[in-house]
Structures are given as structure tokens and as C-alpha cells.
Amino acid sequence: MAAMGQYRNIVILTGAGVSAESGIDTFRAGTDGQPSLWEQHDVEDVATPEGFARDPELVQRFYDMRRAAIQTKLPNPAHDALARLDAAWGGDLLIVTQNVDDLHERAGARRVLHMHGEHLKAWCTACDVRSPWRGSLADYPPCPACQARSLRPDVVWFGEMPYEMNRIYAALRRADLFVSIGTSGAVYPAAGFVRDARELGAHTLELNLERSQGSHLFHESRLGPASQTVPSWVDEVLAGA
Ligand code: OAD
């Protein structure tokens, strides 16, 4: 069993930065001079219910491309390290991810909560069932559960409620360590978790390439690529540092 050190219950929030080194575009700050996703596409068009109502085919094709792309990517050392921590940690641990890729799971992590949904699921708006999905949605395939041609990406759009907020706040209430990895702190409610965790008494740590918008809210910030900062932090916490 892992050394517990001073902490027992951990909540980890991850964002696009944890998958950047796997070759998945971030939403805001582009890496290596590449334009970010929201520089290449209009959020209003592809990430709102109104955009979907206006032009469902454009939205479905956008997510078809993203769904296909993530299946060609591989977990990086940051995902691997978090999976190692998940397997070894005897206390509570929850990896709350804003990411819709499956790289935490493919690295082997089990205690993962996708607050913004998942690319590899389709949501039937007729029967409300979510089904595993790897292919295209653009040609209106039938729902595996009810046969209605009402499937949409199971991704939370702007203006929609993120998933499992009660479970997240319950974990934050118990947490004595909150760690935010690779997220710009631009999108609420996730951006507010640090304040909540801190007020509830947790130590708060940020691991990010650069200072995020909410950097000043953390007790501690460590800057650098997630593939380096995350494995060394995991080593430290498992050693009971
Ligand atoms: P952003 O693109 O806003 O921020 C990514 C953060 O990761 C930035 O602060 C980068 O500096 C940092 N970063 C980039 N490369 C990194 C690396 N190799 N190692 C460590 N950090 C790195 O992505 P999110 O904060 O995840 O929501 O965005 C939050 C939400 O906004 C997304 O879930 C999505 C988006 O609109 C929805 O679609 C609902």
C-alpha cells in the first residue's frame, strides 16, 4: 500500500494540457505555434445547442473528426503516472477530467469522471440512453437502444450542465489535496473547484505549462510540461513527501 504522507483524499482536475503531448489540440493556448481548437473553429457554431440546432451536419462532422482523431493518439507519461497513482493510492482519489478523450482510461486509470462527457459515447435525445460509439454520427445512424435517429455527441456544450456535479462536490468536501493539471482555468464550474477545495481546507497545487488564469488561487504552482511535472509529483506523493 502506498505511503500516505500528510494526505489521504485526493481530487485531481485535468484539462487539455494533460493530453497536449499526446497530440490533441488544446482549446485556447496553442502549443508549438499551432493554432488552438477555438482559434480554428467558432465555439458558437460547434459547441453550443444553438449551433447544433442551426447546422447539425456541421457539428456532427466536427465531432466525427475529433472522435476519429483521438483513436489514433496514445496516452503520454502524465496519463501513465496518474494511472499509477490511482492503482497505488489507498485513500479516496477522483480524477475529474474536462477532457472528452479516453487517454486516462487507456493508461489504466479507473477512478475517472468525465464532467464534460466523452467522444466515444453517443447520447440519444429520444430515449436518453448513452451508447459506446466509435464511428460516424453524421449519417444519422439509429440508436442501439430505441432505433430513433436522434444521436448526438455525448459532449457537454456551452450552456449545458456538466455531468455529476454532486459527486464532484462530495469528493471536494472530503479532499485534503486538490491538484489541477493542464487547464487554463477559463471555464466554470471547473475553474471554481480550487476556491471550493481551498475553502474546505485542502492543500491546492497547480501543474501547468504556464501560470493559468486562477494561478494565484493555488497554494503552490509548478510550471512545465505535464509529461515531466506529473510523474515527478506522483513519485513524491507516493513516497509520502
Ligand atoms: P485550455 O486549452 O483552455 O487550457 C489548456 C491549458 O493547458 C493551458 O493553460 C496551457 O498552458 C496548458 N498546457 C498546454 N500544454 C501543456 C503541457 N504539455 N503540459 C501542461 N500544461 C499544458 O483547456 P481546458 O482548460 O481543458 O469545454 O479547457 C476547459 C474547457 O474549455 C474544455 O473542457 C472545453 C473548452 O471549451 C467544453 O467543451 C465544454
UniProtKB/TrEMBL annotation:
Keywords: Cytoplasm, Metal-binding, NAD, Transferase, Zinc. The active site is at H116 (proton acceptor). Substrate binds at Y63, R66. Its cofactor is Zn(2+). Binds 1 zinc ion per subunit. One of its GO terms (molecular function) is protein-succinyllysine desuccinylase activity. The keyword Transferase applies. NAD(+) binds at Q98, N99, V100, D101, G182, T183, S184, N208, L209, E210, A226. It catalyses: N(6)-succinyl-L-lysyl-[protein] + NAD(+) + H2O = 2''-O-succinyl-ADP-D-ribose + nicotinamide + L-lysyl-[protein]; N(6)-acetyl-L-lysyl-[protein] + NAD(+) + H2O = 2''-O-acetyl-ADP-D-ribose + nicotinamide + L-lysyl-[protein]. It comes from the Bacteria. Its EC number is 2.3.1.286. Coiled coil: none annotated. It is found in: Cytoplasm. Zn(2+) binds at C124, C127, C143, C146. GO terms for cellular component: cytoplasm. Residues 1-240 form the Deacetylase sirtuin-type domain. InterPro entries: DHS-like_NAD/FAD-binding_dom (IPR029035), NAD-dep_sirtuin_deacylases (IPR050134), Sirtuin (IPR003000), Sirtuin_cat_small_dom_sf (IPR026591), Sirtuin_class_III (IPR027546), Ssirtuin_cat_dom (IPR026590). HAMAP family: Sirtuin_ClassIII. Belongs to the sirtuin family. Class III subfamily. NAD-dependent lysine deacetylase and desuccinylase that specifically removes acetyl and succinyl groups on target proteins. Modulates the activities of several proteins which are inactive in their acylated form. This is NAD-dependent protein deacylase. It comes from Novosphingobium kunmingense.
